[in-house]
Every structure is written in C-alpha cells, then in structure tokens.
Amino acid sequence: MSPSRHPAEGEDFVREMVRRDLENGKYPSVVTRFPPEPNGYLHIGHAKSICLNFGLAEEFAGRCHLRYDDTNPQTEDPEYVAAIQRDVAWLGFDWGEHLYFASDYFERLYAWAEQLVRGGLAYVDSSSEAEIRHRRGTISEPGTPSPDRDRPIEESLELLRQMRRGEHEEGAHVLRAKIDMAADNMLMRDPLLYRIRKTPHYRQGDAWSIYPMYDYAHCLEDAIENITHSLCTLEFENNRELYDWVLNAVGIERPRTEQTEFARLNLGYTVMSKRKLLRLVQEGHVDGWDDPRMPTLSGLRRRGVTPEAIRRFCDDIGVAKSHNVIDVARLEHAVRDDLNHRAPRALGVLDPLPLELIDWPADRVEWLDAPSWPHDVPREGSRPLPLARQLIIERDDFSDDPPPDWHRLAPDRSVRLRHGVVVHCVEVVKDVAGRVVSLRCTHEPRGVERPADAPKIHGTIHWLSAEHSVSADVRLYDRLFTVEQPDAVDPETGESDFLGHLNPTSLEVRTAARLEPSLADAAAGEHVQLERQGYFVVDASSTPERPVLNRTVTLRDTWAKIANLPEAHEAAERARRNAAEKAAFKAEQRRASAETGEVADLDPERQEIAQRFEALGLQTQDARLLALDPALAQFFEGALQAHDAPKAVANWLLNELRGLLETRPIGDLPFAPPALGELVALVDGGEITAAAGKTVLAEMVETGSPPREVVARRGLARLADDEALVPHVEAVLASHPQQVEAYRGGKTALLGFFVGQIMQRTRGQADPQSVRALLTKRL
Known about the structure:
- The chain is an alpha/beta fold.
- The protein is built from 25 helices and 27 strands.
- A 7-stranded mixed beta sheet has the order 12-25-26-27-23-24-13.
- Helix 2 (44-59) links the parallel strand 1 (31-34) and strand 2 (63-68).
- It starts with 12 loop residues before the first helix and ends with a helix.
- The model is unreliable at 1-10 and 561-600 (pLDDT under 50).
C-alpha cells in the first residue's frame, strides 16, 4: 500500500492519521511497537493490537518493534517471554532485528530520574502507601501535598541513590513527580515514578533494587526507539497527559512519538484480564494456559484456530474509538470460513450404537471411495471407506419412538448411510433395563434401482465399520462461560463474580468415540471436519494407537438455538446485527477522524459546550463526543434534569443508548431525555441491577414506556431479601443434584457455579452477596 494513496473508503481513524502524518511530512517513516509485559500468555485481545501495529508497519513500509515492558520483576518470567515471541511469529509477523527490552534501558531511565530531581520536577517521598493514597484526594476534592514535597533537592537525590543501592526496604520511599496535587486528572497528582522492589529481575538479576513505573518508563522507551505512533487501548486515555508531561520534562523534542487510543477487543463469553486468566489456571478451572477453552493464542492454536482466521477476524472488526462487546459468533464464523477450505471431510461416531446388516455376508468388506471435499470447495482427493456387516452409527441418529418429521433411523424405517447403502431397521435389541443396545437392519444393494413405489429416503446418517474404525478420545470444547459478559462489575459490590458464570459443560470427552481408518495416522495439528459433528484438530497428545481430537468449532452457531432464536431466522439476525455494527462503526470513524485533536480544535460554540461538560466531571473524550452532536448534548442535559449524576448519565448515554440506536437519530426516540435520567437513578439507587437496567433501556427504545413501568410490568426489581431468593435457590439446587453432592464432598469451587445459575434464573435481579450467603446456609 502506497502511503501517498488517497484514504480508502471506510479506512479506520488510525490509518487515516498515519497517512496524514506521512503526507504532511511529520514523520519520515512509520515506526510502531507491540509492547507486551511478560507476565502471562497473549490472548485474542492482544491479537488485535499485534495485527494493528505490525499491519500498519507493513502497509506503510515502516517497521514494528517487539518490546517487552519488563519493569515489574515480581510478575515476569522467561516462560512468558518465549511464549509471546512464539505467538507473534505464529500469527505471521516478523520483528526482524527489532527485539527490545525495557530492562535494557534501565540506566537511561534512571539518569532521566536524577535529571528530574535536579530540576525540581521530582522528589523522594517517605510516606507510606496508605498515606499517599489518602492524600491523593477524590474526584471532587484536591489532593494534599506530602510533607516531603518540598524536600531539598540534594536530600532527594541522595535518597534516590541509596534506594538504587538497596539501602532501604520496600515501601520506605518512592520517587514521585512534582506536578499538581489539585489536578482534575488524578493521575497528574504527583504520580509515582520509581518504587523499591527487592526481587531479582529475570534478566538483570540483583543489579537493581528500584524499578520504574509503567507510566514513566513506557513513553521514554518509545522515545528511545523513535516510535512515531504509540497505539494504546482506551483505558490509557487519561494516561496520555502524563505521557506528554514526562517527555516534556526530560526534554524530548518534537517531532516525537504521540499516544493514540483505540477500543480494546472485548469478546463475548470470555474474559481478557490476565489476572483473571491466571486465576483460572492457578485454581484448576482450566488445564493450563493452552487449554483450548482459554482465549489465549496458545489455547486457540491448540483448539485448531488458524492464524489466518484470527487475522481475518481482527480485520473484520476494525478499529474504533468506543467500547463495545464483539459477538464471539463473528470469530467462530471466521474460523468456519477458513477451515471449510482447509479441513478434509471424514466420518466419526462419538456415541456408538452397533448396527448389524443381517443380509450382508459376514466375511465381505467393500471399500468405498469417499470424496474428501464437498462440491463447493475447489479441491480434489478421496479416501477408502470400508463397508462391512458389523457397523456403528451415532446413538442420536436412532429413535425408538420418533417425533414428527424425524428423518433418521427408527423401527421399520430406512435411511441412507453417507457414501454407502440404504438400510432398513427390522429389529431393535434392548437390554433388561429397556435400553437400546443394537439394531438389526437389511440393506439395498448398491447400483440397483429402487422400485418406483418405494418410500422416499429423507435422511442420511454417518456410520463406520466396527472392525476397521479406530478408537479415539474426542474432546468437545464449548464456550467457557454461560453469559456474554462474565466479568461485568456488580454496581453494588464493585466486583465481578466471573467464576460464577463458568460453563459446567464447556468440556465433554467422548472416550468411546470411533474414527474412520484414514485418521489413524493423522499428525498433531492436522485439521479435519467430522461430517455433521464439527471441525476438529489432532491434539499434540495424540498417538497412532489412540488419536485425540479437539473440536475447534461446531458446524453452525448452536448457541443461537439455546437462546431460542429460530434457526430459520439465525442468518438474517446475524446479517442485521453485523450491518448495524458496521453502520455504527463507520459513524464512529467519521466522528473520531474529524476530531482527533484536543477540545480546542472544536468550533467555539462546541468548545464551550465541551468545556462545560468537563467541568461537570466528564472525561475529555466523553465531553467531546457529546459536544460534537448538538442533539446528543441536548439529550444529555435533559437527562440530568431527572438525575444529577453527569458521569453515570453520560456513561449510559454513550455506551448503552447509542448502541441501541444503531443508525437512528436520537431525536427519533419514543421517550424524552428525563426518562433516561430516571432509569440511571433506579440503577444508582440500587432499585434494579445494571443488567436489568439494560433490559429496561432496550424496551424503552422500542416502546417508549417509562422505566418504572417497565420494571414493574416485567418484574425486574432487585431481589435482595432471603424470602424472595429462597425459591430460586431451592430450584437450582434441586435441578443439579450431582453438583450439590460434589460440593458437599469437598469441591467448594462449585459455589460460583451455583451463584451463576441463580443469577441466570433471576435474569440478573438477585444480589450476588445475598445469593452466596443463602447458598452457604443451604449447602
């Protein structure tokens, strides 16, 4: 891609910015970086940043650095360093000779720290952590200066040098920037620059006893490497002011690197926090970082997801300026689309039911030539498939008492065996308990024309020769959590009970599974589609004697069915949702690309509005977004008339209501602005949960009903008292007797599972803490 080319239609705001910077000569070339901290394995969220940073360098003939921000020796490990390089390379990106470590810059970073002290821009503070936190103030109250803020420069300098030499214990002193204890941005209230850590560094050993804070080190690392575009996720937006302050304070001249924020990848039905992923590993909820249920790149690789599918997915979701949750079905669609042309077809039976062809000679084996690819995939190949007297079929493909429209096998009914013959069930063999144990069937010879009056064959099922099939372990992986946002924060407790939403059926191992003989020698990493079952990959633990297959993805979105979305409407609903997301994304692109500067870049009228909103406590970006749209600004002020909580109202307006509007103008809403304020007041007052509030808002958008009316009609009031919760608790315990027995047998981690089930049953109305207390009593 030539940097001088005109912006492509729909090009994201980051690429437009880079193109503009190159065309006006701001930078001679593009230099980006991917800066992971080696304290865990990379996940799908990191893939978005990797694709963006390396992709920009590739598109604009620049370069991308792989740099480890290894400034915290307490959490970092060489294992993670190796895993990160392995994952970036697996995704298809090459950093070449540009591999860097923040720890290589420790001397330069320290020299700058002394420079700040000598210039009166930093000081050593001997306050405790609790004292520093207490003196920082609040959003509405300025902070209080430390007694050490005016410590003589030479004294601070000598203490800093003693800290470096290891002469003080952890917590005795910290180095702080001297900025403004009354700053609206609390990060600017004399932030910490260095702290004492008596922990050996995995690369530097015991050479250092103090380590720089991320906000101090990161911008200087960018400057050292001449990074032109420092791309961060939105949670670092407030950090940009400190980023620029540090560069100014040490005298880094322009043109220099600038920080730009974009929305991180929030993927449904999973968590992206390294801390939470580490907890899943350490507490044994998953089998390591590369468990195929994990969103880590190593887990996705072991599950059979290809780097091509991930790159396509990242390209499809694009780069935006506002938070949203991406439907995991979009990732699964990209995986299916990729594997459709990559995975040959084969047959596998996961829950075998014996079937004997009573009119087939006992010693006869007919080898059928079965194509490995469907007609719509332009690839050739086939494999031999043995047909014999003793067969096995999927137990679910037979019904002793078939429902209407049953098109599979049943007593006195016929089906076609895939690639094989038509069979007719003449006898059902059962054990003493009445369970079907085998079927006896006849067959119609191949090549013989069926009589004109013969019943039409409606169904085709898969099958295998019992003698020739291969025993295997087939692992059916599913989503790790049962709700789309498992780590959503409870508005009352301020915590997220993500473990309470773990999916108890996220892994099912079929140890009695059988595969066709062509898969006996399949190598680890090979992809295959087991027809009618899904896409699978051969696991690294697989052996010729006992193949092991991991399910990558089902053949269609089965969760849409679980949610009672009719299959006939599934494709249309997905298309509608994607179209709405793209429309909102393009609108956001236009907004963000038009206003990437500070508030001062707005016209005078909108600048005044934005400044007024900032004075109410809103972040700069939120104030700017509201000011850009007069109708949105007016709606916001109208909502405040009903509930004077600017930050909360802005959050609901920008992050919830705008998403429901899709392409509709806000003036078309069937309710007045104060109704939104009333809804936010219900949530803030604890009358309903945030989850219930989203349900209420969606109905308000559709019908215009007042929020209290919706809450009353749909019974969404918060359930907090034991009397209201008892029926739900008893119902959940009664429907999960095995889990109850396991909990009472010592598996107390199941408490989170029960909490999650009750939260689902009550549609998020229950108070999690009350649920936990009541469960503890009942169990």
